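Support reply, case 0932

Customer input (verbatim):
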Amino acid sequence: MFKKYFLVILILSLIIVGISGCTTKTATNGTFGEKTVSINSILISNNTTADTYNDTDNGNEYYYIDGYLVNNNSNDAFNVKVNATAYDANGNVVATNDSVYLDPTAIPAKGVSEFYVEFPDTNNNIVRYDVKIVDATGTL
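Our regenerated output:
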């Protein structure tokens, strides 16, 4: 008698799971919801600016870069890593910075995030810069 009830419960459970939809792949790429982003689709906006300022409290000169990252992916971009490099007039690297400030830190899909980075520039050597997105993920 127990085997009969067990068999009926097992068959009903299999039918419920089969028609519930929890075993079907609904993602277009068949990944059960894994999200990816391409760093090539995260761009630095054309209105990025750079300038210098003097910190009057301690007398140090700084070179800063301020702009926006545009996420053209269809998914939010998390854990975005940006490297900035500053160069002198001869093309020599003066400084690098991989601690770029992002706000918001997660770039919304088809959205923007402001970035800011600064370098000490006591001799006013910095004349140009390069900003690169080096990594991003589609999940936290």
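We compared this against your earlier run and they match. Two observations from our side: The mean pLDDT is 88. The beta strands are 42-44, 49-55, 60-71, 78-87, 93-97, 101-103, 112-120, 128-137. Please reopen the case if you see a mismatch on your end.
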